[in-house]
Each structure stands twice: as C-alpha cells, then as structure tokens.
Design brief:
Keywords: Endonuclease, Hydrolase, Magnesium, Metal-binding, Nuclease. Belongs to the RNase H family. It comes from Shewanella psychrophila. The structure is a single chain. The protein has 255 residues and is an alpha+beta fold. The chain has 7 helices and 10 strands. It has 2 domains: 46 residues, 3-Layer(aba) Sandwich (Ribonuclease HI, Chain A); 166 residues, Nucleotidyltransferase, domain 5 (2-Layer Sandwich). About 10% of the residues have low confidence.
C-alpha cells in the first residue's frame, strides 16, 4: 500500500501525520474534526497551509478510515481563521536574548480582527519566557470563550511553548516536575499554570504551530504587540486601544 499523509486541521493536535492510527487519535470523537489524506508530502503541506476551509473531510463518529472531502467557503482573512469562532495568535519578543522581553496576542472573532493585547514586560527575560507568557494569556482568553460555547484555536509560532504545555509537561509531572537529566526546568511556574489550563480545556481546544514572519496577519500582529510591550515597558497585560488601525500597527517595529 502506498504511503499517505494525513492533514488534521481541527483535532486534539493539528498538523501532518504519516500514519492513520496517529491521525485518528487526533480526530476520533473530536467535535467537528476536519482532516484529509494526501498521496504526497508536498500536497499535504500545501493543503495544511491553506487551511480546512479550502477542502476538508469531517469525520463521523466511530469510522475506521478517512471520509471523502467536502468543499467549504474560502476565508476572507486567513483560511484557517474561518474554521473557528475564535482564533488567537501569540508571540513573544526579547531584545537581546536574554534581555528585555514582552508578549503579544491577536484575537480574531468570527474571522475578523477583534482585539490586540500586549505587555508582561520583563527587563531580564528570554524569548522562551515571553512566548510562554503569551500562550498562557491565550489560554485564559480561550477558557472564557469556550465557556461561552465558542470554538477556539490558538496559534503559536513557538514549538518550544507548545511542546512544554501539551507534551513535555506530562513527563515532567510524573517525575515530580523534574527533568530526566540534571538541572531545573526553566520557566517552570508559567509552564505549570499553562499546563493546568490546557488539561482543563484540551478536549475542546485546538493548539497548533504557525510559521513566523511569512506574512500571516495574526502572527505579524502578535509579533508587533510583543515588541510594542518592550517599547512601552508595560508589566501588566494591556488591551491595545481601539480603533485598531491595521496599517499603522503593522508598520511598528517587528521582532
């Protein structure tokens, strides 16, 4: 049998999987799961980057193999943004690293930019701590919206942060929050708080990685907010004042 690649746009974890068993674990009995199989890695990469709104398959409960795809409207902002009620982009910045750090978040609701957030300034932080702080704030926003019955997707450009919260934390927790090798876990306090939130929300929440600095609007806005936080030196997490003037914000310093 020829090898296939399985794209999961909506599921417990999103991404491209090389076996159906692995993909099935992400979508089985997950509300409104969206996925599709492809014959080549190039096709899968292209489809994942376009988002589920271009073409997807929604899995009925208890099926044993992927179903056929169904078409859906293309999003006017970003294909993936239209698949959820709320999409939250996160980013952290640090100048230098370690150095002055800040966090940023961009929130889309109903496929429209709704809110921008910035802050959590640390005069001696790291890029990783700033990314984790941003993800923690996104989880808090997600919790509020999930409680209101909304579907939520968090998109972070930090694989480190995502892995800390959704993957590595399980092993650390079973070992009393210790690493296999010598040395303490860096950023432990924010990791523990974020992992606890993730555990509470994970059955309904989607978290995925988004490529940085390739022109994805939400990622670019979160990036600008993280650097804006450094420039403003705000230690609180602040909502950027409305009206949001998109061109002006995107012209701010980038990280």
């Amino acid at each position: 049998m020829a090898k296939k690649f399985y794209v999961v746009w909506v599921g417990r974890e999103t991404g491209i999987f090389t076996t159906w068993d692995e993909a099935k674990r992400q979508v089985d009995k997950f509300p409104k799961a969206k996925y599709k199989s492809f014959k080549t890695k190039a096709e899968a990469d292209a489809a994942f980057s376009k988002g589920a709104s271009s073409t997807y398959a929604a899995k009925p409960a208890n099926t044993s193999s992927p179903s056929k795809s169904h078409s859906a409207p293309t999003s006017k902002t970003s294909a993936s943004n239209a698949d959820y009620d709320v999409v939250i982009y996160t980013d952290g910045g640090c100048e230098p690293n370690p150095g002055k750090a800040g966090s940023g978040v961009a929130v889309y609701k109903n496929n429209e930019l709704s809110e921008l957030w910035y802050g959590l300034y640390n005069s001696y932080g790291t890029n990783n701590s700033a990314e984790l702080n941003a993800l923690h704030q996104a989880l808090l926003i997600a919790k509020e919206n999930l409680a209101a019955g909304k579907s939520v997707h968090i998109r972070s450009d930090s694989q480190y942060s995502i892995n800390c919260i959704t993957n590595w934390a399980y092993g650390w927790k079973t070992k009393g929050w210790k690493r296999k090798t010598a040395g303490d876990i860096k950023n432990l306090e924010i990791i523990q708080a974020s992992h606890a939130l993730y555990e509470e929300l994970k059955e309904k929440l989607v978290i995925s990685h988004v490529a940085a600095h390739i022109g994805i609007e939400g990622n670019e806005l979160a990036d600008r907010m993280s650097i804006y936080a450094i420039d403003k030196k705000d230690v609180e997490f602040c909502r950027y004042p409305e009206p949001i003037e998109l061109t002006g914000i995107l012209s701010l310093r980038a990280g």
